[in-house]
Specification:
Blueprint: H1 3-14, E1 16-22, H2 29-39, H3 48-59, H4 61-69, E2 77-82, E3 85-90, H5 100-107, E4 111-117, H6 124-135, E5 140-145, H7 154-165, E6 168-171, E7 173-176, E8 184-187, E9 192-197, E10 208-212, H8 217-241, H9 247-251, E11 255-260, H10 269-279, E12 299-307, E13 316-324, E14 326-328, E15 332-335, E16 340-343, E17 348-351, E18 354-357, E19 360-362, E20 366-370, E21 380-382, E22 399-405, H11 411-424, E23 428-430, E24 441-444, H12 447-461, E25 465-470, E26 474-479, H13 485-490, E27 494-498, E28 504-508, H14 511-520, E29 525-527
Parallel strand pairs: 1-3, 1-4, 4-5, 5-11, 6-11
Antiparallel strand pairs: 2-3, 7-8, 8-9, 9-10, 12-13, 12-21, 13-20, 14-19, 15-16, 15-21, 17-18, 22-24, 22-25, 23-24, 26-28, 26-29, 27-28
Helix pairs in contact: 3-4, 11-12
This protein binds guanosine-5',3'-tetraphosphate.
Length: 533
């Protein structure tokens, strides 16, 4: 590798920003995503993301479910440039049924933007997602949305963030007014007001921003003397009362920079984006690195497999987060699990939901590789010196059901469908010891995954099934001496199954059952993951 090449890789990696938006449904994630694309120049008039999405729905059976339920089941990635930065925005599913997908997506992000509705504050889904980000030590940026509506007092919201989530907050800017009187934000570092002017647009185009200072007649004219005095008092209070700003604490996930705005009207989007790209870490600046991202050799891991995005082709994409070096189309790399060389063909990138073929990509980027069944979630691929990424979260299922097929002649299709969906990580498949495959049991982390399973088995594999719920809440693999299967089968609060690799796994009726068994069998370990993983 020449010096020039190494320099080029370092430079490319440094300008990557890879993040996800976390929020409770309805806080405005779709709207915010669209506005980020607008400011990134990836779309020209806001409004097109939704209509494109609608067009996609029309051609995709699978998406019908999303449409019926008004939710986003799948998650993908959008790439767009902003200034000198290359941004990868990972889309997390927004529905309330929390899935493994969301966790894995966050494993591929270097930062998170927490979107909060000013009227509602920190909502349950935000809190759950926040905790995952916390565990991963991700830097978290807060955007308080819907300032064009009357909402809660901003100081009260900051207090809620600190108390409920246990993270310090630092307002980078401060709202000037709220609801109809929302005129702009006070930029604390620049000591200036940014006054927004929609120019009569309704959020389809960028807003004009006029800068003003506290002694500028423009600000007095815009706000009037009473409101101006209030702003002066608020600014003073913030400066004496709040936490100190520290970029180091932001990068460590200990302090969240807070921004105010309205995604719908575009007010506050630009000041947010400008500060975000500066403060969020590039892949070379994240705190916990498993590999040097600027090393020239390519490496990455599969965090998501998504089938049938285009039912006409029945194709399947493996989404890979690049962890180091440069990716080139058709390059050879090693699949760590099988210790064999594979060709990385047909790479795709997502630009505002259109697929394009990528020629090259760098650490921080996400690419989708055509997957004929090669990849599994959590797979590492690399060139050069061996690396293995083991940090992809796995979860034990909490919902279980027996799969009953209506038409016995469709059993083959059912088996194929269940196998493929299990490979995708959408569900887990179990067998009952002593009984045949006729009694397949499926497990999922969220109830919604069952609905998706039923729907996809019918649409994609032509297998109509009933799912008969099994009333168990926990599943644990067993490790240790002296495990006697029969004992666990005799009691009605446990049930023994076999996983895909024929390891025994025990279902427990509830918390009590799990704790009771832990007490009864001190020599056994009940593990949320298969032993040895
Ligand atoms: P989500 O992806 O987080 O679920 O939220 P989404 O963007 O779909 O927004 C949810 C609703 O909130 C939408 O209204 C959207 O227009 C509105 N919204 C988003 N940002 C803002 C904002 O800054 N201010 C105000 N006032 N509203 C906002 P809807 O009526 O459900 O849909 P639509 O008819 O507007 O499309």
């Amino acid at each position: 590798m020449s010096d020039a090449n190494a320099k080029k890789i370092a430079k490319e990696v440094h300008r990557r920003r890879t993040f996800a938006i976390i929020s409770h449904p309805d806080a405005g994630k779709t709207t915010m995503t669209e506005k980020l694309l607008l400011y990134g120049g990836a779309i020209h008039l806001a409004g097109s993301v939704k209509s494109r999405r609608a067009a996609k729905h029309a051609v995709s059976d699978w998406m019908e479910l999303e449409q019926q339920r008004g939710i986003s089941v799948t998650s993908s990635v959008l790439q767009f440039p902003y200034k000198n930065y290359a941004i990868n925005l990972l889309d997390t599913p927004g529905h309330a049924d929390f899935s493994e997908d969301t966790y894995r997506t966050l494993a591929a992000a270097d930062a998170a933007v927490m979107l909060i509705d000013v009227a509602k504050g920190v909502e349950p889904q935000t809190e759950k997602l926040f905790k995952v980000c916390r565990m991963r030590k991700l830097p978290i940026f807060t955007f308080v949305n819907k300032m064009d509506r009357e909402g809660r007092n901003p100081l009260e919201l900051l207090e809620e963030i600190e108390n409920l989530l246990g993270i310090k907050s630092y307002p980078i800017n401060w709202p000037i007014g709220m609801g109809k009187a929302f005129k702009g934000v006070w930029d604390r570092a620049g000591q200036k007001a940014l006054l927004f002017d929609s120019g009569g647009h309704h959020g389809e185009a960028r807003v004009d921003i006029k800068e003003s200072t506290l002694d500028d007649p423009l600000l007095l004219n815009t706000l009037g003397p009473v409101r101006l005095q209030e702003l002066k008092d608020e600014v003073e209070l913030l400066d004496i009362a709040g936490d100190e700003f520290s970029l180091e604490q932001v990068r460590n996930g200990e302090l969240t920079p807070v921004f105010f705005g309205s995604a719908m009207t575009n007010f506050g989007i630009e000041p947010f984006l400008e500060a975000f790209v500066e403060m969020a870490p590039g892949p070379d600046e994240v705190r916990v690195k498993q590999v040097d991202p600027t090393r020239p050799e390519f490496s990455g891991f599969v965090f998501k497999i998504q089938a049938n995005m285009n039912p006409a082709h029945r194709d399947r994409l493996a989404f890979i987060r690049i962890m180091s070096g440069r990716f080139e189309r058709d390059m050879q790399a090693k699949l760590a699990r099988e210790n064999r060389q594979i060709k990385l063909a047909y790479p795709q990138t997502m630009m505002a939901q259109d697929r394009e073929t990528v020629e090259e990509a760098y650490a921080g980027d996400i690419i989708g590789l055509y997957d004929p069944g090669t990849f599994r979630i959590g797979d590492t691929i690399y060139t050069g010196e061996a690396v293995e990424f083991t940090d992809i979260p796995r979860f034990s299922p909490e919902h279980f059901a027996i799969v009953e097929i209506k038409d016995a002649l469709k059993r083959k299709q059912l088996t194929k469908g269940l196998d493929q969906l299990a490979e995708e990580g959408a569900i887990q498949v179990f067998k009952q010891p002593y009984l045949g495959e006729k009694d397949t049991i499926v497990g999922a982390v969220g109830q919604l995954q069952f609905e998706v399973l039923k729907f996809r088995l019918e649409k994609e594999y032509n297998a109509v099934v009933q799912l008969r719920p099994l009333l168990f809440q926990h599943a644990r693999w067993v490790d240790g001496e002296g495990f006697e299967q029969q004992k666990f089968e005799r009691q009605d609060y446990t049930k023994v199954l076999l996983d895909r690799d024929d390891n025994p796994i025990i279902l427990f009726r509830n918390d009590w059952a799990l704790n009771y068994c832990k007490g009864q069998y001190p020599d056994l370990r009940f593990l949320p993951n298969p032993p040895g993983t």
